[in-house]
Amino acid sequence: MSFDKILNEVIKEIGLERNGDLEKPLYDFVRRYGPMICVDVVLIPEGKEPRVILAKRGRQAVAPGEWWIFGGRVDKKVNYLDCAKAKVQKECGLEVEIKFEDIIGIGSTYFKKGNVGEEKLRDYDVATANLCFGKVIELNDKMKEKLNPRDGYDDEWEVFDRIDPSWHPYIINAVFNIWVKIFGKDKVLKDLDKRVRKILEQDKSFISLSYNSPLL
Fold it and tell me: Nearest-CA neighbor of 167 among 36, 38, 91, 54?
């Protein structure tokens, strides 16, 4: 059977058009052969000092054991705002309003196959292009009760007041940029770890918006 016929048979099986969530086999097939467009949201607890909410990735997910922000794949309708809102609600249980002015930058991530720590090793690489938002939320007791990471995350989250150099460079960039936007570069740079500064200087995987000044 020719390659075209094989693909046509696959199309007949899965349907001519698919939007929204995809079954895992189809999801894995799509990300095997090309990059995915994703939206991510950095959640910042309201207050006068820089803080950020991160959740730990599960062993069956890409980047297992890493502290990460919330987000996921954009479907064919490409409604970034609705998608970002839905991903946050699905992945951590919180309802937040997302606007275009909440965009902090564009990033990219690339995960090689056989990523250490994954429960089920992939035999393909994963690449994503990420539209990154930042949102300030009131983290009161009621919100803490609702905050329940799932869908790729362990049931574990923390509020950090420092950027850790062990975090993935994309997360370091995302957190740094939203902190600069909210609190100003001078305040953020004041207590910035030298190793984090070096990562920000060298890493080219995140393009911040123009209102975020360069690191130096």
Answer: 54
Strands 52-57 and 153-160: antiparallel
Find residue 35's DSSP bridge partners: none
Give the pLDDT confidence of 86-109 residue by residue, as tens digits: 999 999 999 999 999 999 999 999
Q: How far apart are CA 63 and CA 216, in angstroms?
A: 30
Q: Which amino acid is at 67?
A: W
Task: Give the CA count within 13 Å in the CB-facing half-sphere of 86.
Answer: 13
pLDDT, tens digit (0-9, with 9 covering 90-100), for 156-203: 999 999 999 999 999 999 999 999 999 999 999 998 999 999 999 999
Burial tier of 23 (Cβ tally within 10 Å: 0-12, 13-18, 19+):
exposed
13 burial type by CB count under 10 A (0-12 exposed, 13-18 middle, 19+ buried): exposed
Cβ atoms of 151 and 90 closer than 8 Å? yes
3-class DSSP state of 211: coil
In this predicted model, what pLDDT tens digit does every residue of 68-88 receive, in sequence order?
Answer: 999 999 988 889 999 999 999
Q: Is 212 exposed, middle or buried (0-12, 13-18, 19+ CB in 10 A)?
A: middle
Global model pTM greater than 0.70 = yes
